[in-house]
Write a structure and sequence with these properties.
It is a single chain. The radius of gyration is 43 Å and the shape is rod-shaped. The two termini are about 85 Å apart. About 30% of the residues are buried. Helix 4 (about 75-95) runs antiparallel to helix 5 and helix 10 (about 300-320) packs antiparallel against helix 12 (about 365-375). Helix 10 links the parallel strand 1 and strand 2. It contains twelve helices and six strands. By secondary structure, it is α/β, with parallel strands linked by helices. It folds into two domains: about 1-185, no CATH class; about 270-435, Histidine kinase-like ATPase, C-terminal domain (Heat Shock Protein 90), CATH 3.30.565.10.
Length: about 425
């Protein structure tokens, strides 16, 4: 049963495709079929008596059906010709024969399938009115049911055409929806690829910038101590070797993600547990860094843990790169539903931003962009600003199940986030006394 329905649907689709490719040929095929059907139907018994077997009736039926050749090009003219044939038959014979309504019904089906419903109904009413008028004028012996039948065939053709048009519209809408869905999937796939590329770019930037900055500090310190304290310089060289190895490992791990399946979950990166080691590397290179931790220190969710580490890493890298030798303060506060991170570094006295002649510096470098993207991705807030001779990076990362609204401000914007109650707008956050 199912296979039979599928075969019928396949046959219908083939005919529709054939009609679109060869409209004239399909019209001729329909014309021949309807003409043969009309001639045969004229011979069917009418009112219990014999049908119309005259040659004139057969020729009139063929002539009326011939107008169906125009049903695809000029459907309204096709209705006019077929309806005229039915009216001529009524005028000539004065009798009822529903077979003469068949060509008109097929022509109206074509009109309804190609024209708006209002136009199709107008043409249908006009054709039905012409046949009814002829029946009342020249068909005195017609029964009421015969007049209804003559008009009913026309309405049936219109209904079939309207249903076909609705089905075609539905199919076109479904095809358009499928194409739109496919385009949307392509757009989403492209966005996913771009997001993954940006994430890998951030990871490579963080790893390379951090380790190269640390190596640069180590080299500078080793150069100063190579003659006076060679044993310390030798330790510096060993540390540089370790840092370079760690950098290579991180870059290899990050680039290795490009070779994985897109559905593979990336391995966890460094987190807050690695923060003391990172700070120690900078201290060994001569950087003055003070770390303060307030609140109950605890394990953070994986993504938040990595972002917190990367915020501190990027902030320290920028501090030792742009203000070498100046003190840096790192403050972490663990709240019930968030962790707050503040990194402050003082500028060098000869810095243009301290003397007031500078332009405020670039707060939108690649490192800052990557930091913002990371913080926003976990639902946190980030404030990067200048306060007198301090450069301040202030981030709040949610650790609960619900993420707060994302905010990203820079350049000294007023910061009145509810998680930082009591803070004067633009002021440096107050934390407990620092401990080394």
């Amino acid at each position: 049963m199912i296979s039979g329905n599928l075969s019928r649907v396949d046959l219908d689709e083939r005919w529709v495709r054939f009609s679109r490719r060869r409209p004239l040929v399909s019209s001729i095929v329909v014309t021949v079929v309807v003409a043969v059907g009309t001639v045969l139907a004229l011979r069917v018994v009418q009112r219990g008596g014999p049908g119309d077997t005259s040659l004139a009736a057969a020729l009139l039926g063929v002539a009326a059906s011939a107008f169906l050749v125009l049903k695809n090009r000029v459907p309204v003219l096709s209705v006019v010709g077929t309806t005229a044939g039915a009216v001529i038959y009524i005028v000539a014979t004065g009798s009822f024969n529903s077979a003469m309504s068949l060509p008109s019904a097929v022509a109206l089906c074509a009109v309804a399938g190609r024209s708006p419903m209002r136009r199709a109904m107008t043409v249908t009413v006009s054709a039905a009115g012409a046949i009814l008028a002829a029946s009342f004028i020249w068909g005195d012996n017609w029964l009421p049911v015969e007049r209804i039948a003559a008009v009913g065939w026309l309405l049936l053709g219109t209904c079939i055409g309207a249903l076909g048009r609705a089905r075609s519209g539905y199919v076109e809408a479904m095809e358009a929806r499928a194409e739109a869905a496919e385009s949307q999937r392509e757009v989403e796939a492209t966005q996913a690829v771009l997001a993954e590329r940006m994430r890998i770019a951030r990871d490579i930037h963080d790893a390379v910038a951090h380790h190269l900055t640390a190596i640069n500090l180590q080299i500078g310190t080793a150069q100063r101590l190579v003659h006076t304290r060679p044993e310390v310089a030798e330790q510096m060289l060993a540390q540089m070797h370790d840092i370079a190895g760690a950098a290579l490992s991180e870059v290899k791990a990050t680039v290795g993600m490009l070779r994985r399946d897109s559905l593979t979950v990336p391995e966890p990166g460094a987190g807050m547990s690695s923060m003391p080691g990172m700070v120690e590397v900078y201290r060994n290179a001569g950087a003055s860094i003070v770390v303060t931790v307030a609140g109950e220190q605890r394990s953070l969710p994986g993504d938040v843990d990595q972002v917190a580490y990367r915020v501190i890493q990027e902030s320290l890298t920028n501090a030792v790169r742009h203000a070498p030798g100046m003190p840096v303060a790192v403050r972490c506060r663990y709240d019930d539903d968030a962790v707050a991170i503040v990194v402050e570094n003082r500028l060098r006295p000869d810095d243009a931003r301290v003397s007031g002649t500078g332009d405020g510096g670039d707060l939108h470098g690649l490192g800052m962009i990557g930091m913002r993207e990371r913080v926003v991705a976990v639902g946190g807030t980030l404030d990067v600003r200048w306060v007198d001779d301090l450069f301040v990076v202030d981030a709040v990362l949610p650790t609960g199940t619900e993420s707060d609204d994302c905010e990203v401000t820079a350049g000294g914007d007023v910061d009145d986030h509810p998680d930082r109650a009591g803070r004067r707008p633009g002021a440096v956050p107050k934390h407990p006394a620092t401990t080394r």
